[in-house]
Structures are given as C-alpha cells and as structure tokens.
Amino acid sequence: MEENPTLESEAWGSSREWLAPREARGGPSLSSVLNELPSAATLRYRDPGVLPWGALEEEEEDGGRSRKAFTEVTQTELQDPHPSRELPWPMQARRAHRQRNASRDQVVYGSGTKTDRWARLLRRSKEKTKEGLRSLQPWAWTLKRIGGQFGAGTESYFSLLRFLLLLNVLASVLMACMTLLPTWLGGAPPGPPGPDISSPCGSYNPHSQGLVTFATQLFNLLSGEGYLEWSPLFYGFYPPRPRLAVTYLCWAFAVGLICLLLILHRSVSGLKQTLLAESEALTSYSHRVFSAWDFGLCGDVHVRLRQRIILYELKVELEETVVRRQAAVRTLGQQARVWLVRVLLNLLVVALLGAAFYGVYWATGCTVELQELPLLKLGVNYLPSIFIAGVNFVLPPVFKLIAPLEGYTRSRQIVFILLRTVFLRLASLVVLLFSLWNQITCGGDSEAEDCKTCGYNYKQLPCWETVLGQEMYKLLLFDLLTVLAVALLIQFPRKLLCGLCPGALGRLAGTQEFQVPDEVLGLIYAQTVVWVGSFFCPLLPLLNTVKFLLLFYLKKLTLFSTCSPAARTFRASAANFFFPLVLLLGLAISSVPLLYSIFLIPPSKLCGPFRGQSSIWAQIPESISSLPETTQNFLFFLGTQAFAVPLLLISSILMAYTVALANSYGRLISELKRQRETEAQNKVFLARRAVALTSTKPAL
C-alpha cells in the first residue's frame, strides 16, 4: 500500500517546525502547550502559585511572557465560581479563595436584579445548610479511620449502623410527641382491669398477685411480663381515647413513610456509585491512580489513611479482574461443570433453609404447650428466640463456605451470602409471625370455638397485641445478649489465646476477620424486628437506639482490638446499594403483618386504645365523621375515582417523559463514548505516525 507523499511531506514539515528554534517556528510555545496538559493542571491544583512544566526553562527566552500568561490562567482559576471545599487546594489557598469570593460578593451584592440577589442568597443558604448537616454527622473521623485500615466494605457496615441509628432516633422522637405526650396530657391513664371484671371476651389481669420475688422480677424484665406488661412499653397500657387512637395510628404510618423515603434516598445515591463502578465509564486503575488523590490533605495520618484506601480499591479491582479472566477462558465442558456445581450447592442451601424454617415453626408451637412447666418457663418463653439465634449462628458460616465454590467474584459472593442469610433471618421471622397468627386467629377459622365470640383467641391471648409486642421485645433483647456473649466469650478470649500461645496455634486461634455480611444482616434483622413490633411495643425504637449505640462502640472496640484486615476485599459500591436494598426488603416484610393487624384482625376488647372497635382502622372513619362537612367532603373526594384517575394519568405522563428523557440521555452517553474511543484511536495513530516519521528522518 503506497503512502500519500503529500501527507508525509506535511507531517515531516510539521515535525521540522517543531524541532526548529522557537523564534523560527510559528504557533504556541512549549510552555503554553505543556500548560494545557493534565499534569500541569494537577500542579496548579496543588497551589495557585506553582509554575507549569517548562516555565523555568523558557522564562528567559520568552522575556517573562510565559510567567505572565500563567498568572492570567491562575487568576482565571481563582475566579472559579465553585465552592472552596471542592477545589483540591491546600487549606491556606482555600481560605484565601473563600475570603476573596466573600469580598467580591459584598461588592456585587448591590448590583443585579432582585431575582439574582435572591438566587445568590438561596444558593449561599443551601451551601451553608449542607455544610452544617455534614458537620453534624457523628463518627465521621472514625469511619474514615476504619475505611483506611480495614477497607471500604467494613466502613459501609458502620455507615449503615449510623443510618439505622438516625432512623430509630426519628422514630423515638415521633413516638414521644404523638403517643406519650397525648397520653399524659389527657390525664392519668387508668389501671389494668381487675380480676373481678369480666366480659364476653374473658378477663385480663397482667399484674402478679402477692409477694414478688427477685427471680420473678428478673423473669419479668427478660420476658416483658408482670410490671412491664402494663406500662408504656406495650400497647395494652394506652387508654381508649379517640384522639390518642388517631395519633397512635398516624405515628405508625408516619414512621413507616419517613423510613421508606430515607432508605430510597440512600439506595438511589448508592445506585449511582454502583452503576458508575460496574460500567466501564471510568478506567478503574488510571482513575484511582491519577484522580483518587486529595491534594488538600494535611498531616501524615490523613496521607497514610488515603494511601490505604486507594490500596484496598486497587486490590479489589485486581482480584475481580483475575476471576473474570478465568471465567472468560473456560471451555464448554468447564462451564457445564461450574453450572452443575452451582445447581447442587443451591439445592443444598434450599434443604438447609427448609429444615431451619420447620424448626422455628416447631419451637413456636411448643412454647404454648410447655407453658405449664414452672421450672422451664423462662427457657420456654425464649425457645423461639433461642432457636432463631442458633440457626442464624450455624448456617451463615456454611453459606460462607459454599460461596467460593461457585466461581463468582468476591463482590458477587458477598451478594449471594447476603441474599441467603437475609432470606434465612427474615424468613425465620416470617415463620414466627405466621405461628403467632395461627394462635391469634385460630388458624384463620373465625368459626372456631375459641375465636367465634370475639374474632380472636381470647382464652389464650386476652391482649394479643401485647403478646406480639412481648415476642418482638424478647427477640431484640436476646439478640443484644447474643452479641455481648459472642464478643466477651469468643472474640476477646481468642485474642488472649493468640498472645499466650506463640507459633502457628496462636495465629490460628487469634486470626479474626470482621465478617461484613453477617454483621450487616444482624443489623437488618434487628431493625426489621423493631419495625414489626413498634406498633405493639411503642418504646421499642428507643430501646433499639440504646442498643445500636452500645453496638457501635462494642464493634469498634472489637474491630481494632481483635480483628485483622480482610485478606479478600470486595467492592464497597455494591455494598452501598445492596445494603439499603435489603433494608427496604425488611421494611416491606414488616409492613405486611402490621397492615394485616390494622385492617383485618379485631383489636383486643380489654386493652389498648382501640378496644371496642371492629378493627383498628375503624377509628379513622369514625374520627373523620366528627370533622366539618367541608373537610369530610375533601377527604372522601381523595378516595374517589374523580381524583384517582387524573392522578394516574398525570403519573403515567410524567413516567413516560422520564423514560424518554433517560433514553435520550443514554443515546447521548453512547455517542460520547464512541467519540471518546475514536479520539483515543486518533491519538494512537498520530503517535505511531510521528514515531515512523522520526525513524525515517535519516533516510530523508
């Protein structure tokens, strides 16, 4: 193939002009060309006063014009409208930039239209609000330290713990304002019904008669019976007042809505990171090597911390790349063998889960049958909790052994372990709730002898809401005791054994890694228990707040005292999206028994704010009927087709517009990617052409 002589002469002429002295050639100087390189921009971002590449060599030749040009560039950057915290400069340069912008804003504040001034004021207020909220986040430095020493996956666990703590604090504040405060403002709550008071639905006397021993008091504390059964801790304590009933029900819906919105917000932010990491929009290695460093860091501690974080991210990329390359070179027979192994392992997982669920159902059924044994009363009360804790302690390690045999990447293994463990934990809770539903509704048979009179099993469960709240209270308390026992009786003794026994035995006994999937699922399980039981045990979010505070400091102490960095890491972006997604699943599961109890099961006739109603929801239409007629018509209009159909149409139009906009953005992104690939190919071609022309220069 013949080469174009014209093109070759033009390229050679350009090369000779470039190699000629600067006075003899036209075009930009070496300093101005190098000043446009990303490396020169990186130097300028270190400090606004750093000179670009090649400035010192050509300063004398240019007569100071390069320094002047660079000063103009620097002044342009100093007038950057971005906030000072977004500029990768040292703190001193950022402070000077912020002061300069403040003085400039004071000068131009009086100029411009009124709309511009309000827009600037709104932007400033928004920035200050974000900075204030960011400064109020607790344990920010602790999370950075954990991420630098143990990886971003471990940091995501503590970040999720902090998020759940926020949810419980909000639920506790709403509970105090909408439940406890109206109860005490309406007068002293009445006491429990006496033993001589009877009704068609039997009698109910939660207080113990006679002298109560210390053992009985301890049993009541652990089981929620006795003096705790008729206290603000449980549903049955609250009196039947119409306004209290409405605020009680609105509190439950408000907590669920707030939790849903916050979890969705967290999931969407995690989804952005996951899509960016999973898509190959950024070259993983070059992005972390050239763009992950923060030039505003000051101090050796922060520098080493950032180095460790980048190191962990690179390790994750390298490990997953190795697994993907191994999967890409598999033959058809190897692929078939891998899929056969996966099918067999999943059948084994299904069998283990089925056995665990049957055991939980059996333990819940035996609780009622063995209540008459006084010596085993405490153990019988905690039998479902003990069995669930035992299953959750034994099966997750088995799942952890199975996951590496399936040939997935580390991040995919974490997802499968989480899916199986969350199915085990949440399904065990569902089986427990199903067993309780079977006892409350007589197996769904409203014509049964025990349920025919009142609609629920009033002989065994005269206040079934309190009994359900007691079960959730025991699950929460037993989970806390299990965490404390594991930390004090297993993890810390292992670390002591590592120090007392040198050699391989000590290393084997003392080497512990922080198991992120198990710990995360423990948090989600505990929060799901709280969501299920908060309606029947209103103080449960407050108890869970205290538990999570203790758990944070206990896990932090355990992490830094007994655990070593994980030998195999995983991508934190997947965790930031998947953890809230599993949390959203727990919220959805917890809403099913709550909504079923509100709409379908008749409330207890002897306790609670809804006593005497046909259903818990019946209090809402009754309260609406007492409102003015205009308000009633408006509220009833919201439930008619005249409101629902236009709302559905508007929602459909907005959804179609959003989908069309997303598709157009997707096509634009694809086109930009193709242009980027073309530009890269052009640069490679030009570089090869320049090398070829340089090598042929002696011949010419």
Explained architecture:
- With 700 residues, this protein is mostly helical.
- The protein is globular, with a radius of gyration of 34 Å.
- Helix 9 runs antiparallel to helix 11 and helix 14 (332-369) packs antiparallel against helix 16.
- 71% of the residues lie in helices and 0% in strands.
- Residues 1-28 and 36-61 have low confidence and may be disordered.
- The chain has 25 helices and no strands.
Radius of gyration: 34 Å
Show unreliable segments.
Answer: 1-28, 36-61
Oligomer: single chain
* Strand segment count: 0
Query: Helix count?
Result: 25
The succession of helices and strands, N to C, reads HHHHHHHHHHHHHHHHHHHHHHHHH
Provide mean pLDDT, rounded.
75
User: Could you estimate the helical fraction of the residues in percent?
Assistant: over 70%
Distance between the termini: 19 Å
Strand content: under 5%
Largest sheet geometry? none
Gross morphology = globular
Q: Which structural class do you get from the secondary structure elements?
A: mainly alpha
Topology (elements, then pairings):
Elements: H1 5-19, H2 30-35, H3 38-46, H4 55-62, H5 65-78, H6 91-108, H7 114-135, H8 140-150, H9 152-185, H10 214-223, H11 242-278, H12 284-291, H13 300-328, H14 332-369, H15 377-381, H16 383-402, H17 410-440, H18 464-500, H19 504-510, H20 516-533, H21 540-562, H22 572-599, H23 619-624, H24 629-637, H25 641-695
Helix pairs in contact: 8-9, 8-13, 9-11, 9-20, 9-21, 9-22, 11-22, 12-13, 14-16, 14-17, 16-17, 17-20, 17-22, 18-19, 18-20, 18-21, 20-22
